[in-house]
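Researcher: Please translate sequence to structure tokens.
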Amino acid sequence: MKNVKLNSEQQAALEKIKQGGNCIIPGNAGTGKSTLLRHLHEAIPEAVFVAPTGAAARLIGGVTINSLFRIPPQPYITDWSMGVISNKGVRKTIKAIKVLVVDESSLVRSDIFAAIDYRLRQYAPDGCAKYRYNKLVKGAVCGIPRVLDAGQCNDCYSLAVIALKLKEIFGTADINELPISFDIAWYEQKAVAVLLALLHLGLKNIRLGPRLPAFYRRISRKLW
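Model: Translation complete:
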């Protein structure tokens, strides 16, 4: 790759990626996206490269999404179908991910992105999951982002306000009729208070993880 020079646009994109944060590199076939990704191997050695197909993965020197994250080949992936990874080496690799590069992201279904997030929360629980969750570019629906980061736990009130406004705009009788979910991925006092507040408001579609808090596990045992 040392003999292949990047043009000005590729070099600018490379510098932007090295600064951190989310980056989307669009372009038609033959515009040099894969060449840029191969340069990333040298620029960011710790980056992990994945793609939805074997051919695309080989082209960028990576692996398939399903292979790395052990995602089962099913029509639709849910948390319940993910299970656990028995291979310690794979768990260690996932836990060490700091930079994740997804090639051909337009071919990746939303449930596959959710499965990637599930694995990152499952095996990399050393900090607030939002810092890994925000690395996933999930796009938007009619201009509305699929993922909204509420910031710190005590800022989640903004999400409740947004949900109520969407309920008003779409004219639904119940906020739970909207195709939205709340993801609470780390447990400290504030996050537990947030969970209790959402339950008190009657909100459903709340996803918890990577582990349930102790008090909730006790409640679940009593209910079941």
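Researcher: Any highlights?
Model: The chain has eleven helices and seven strands.
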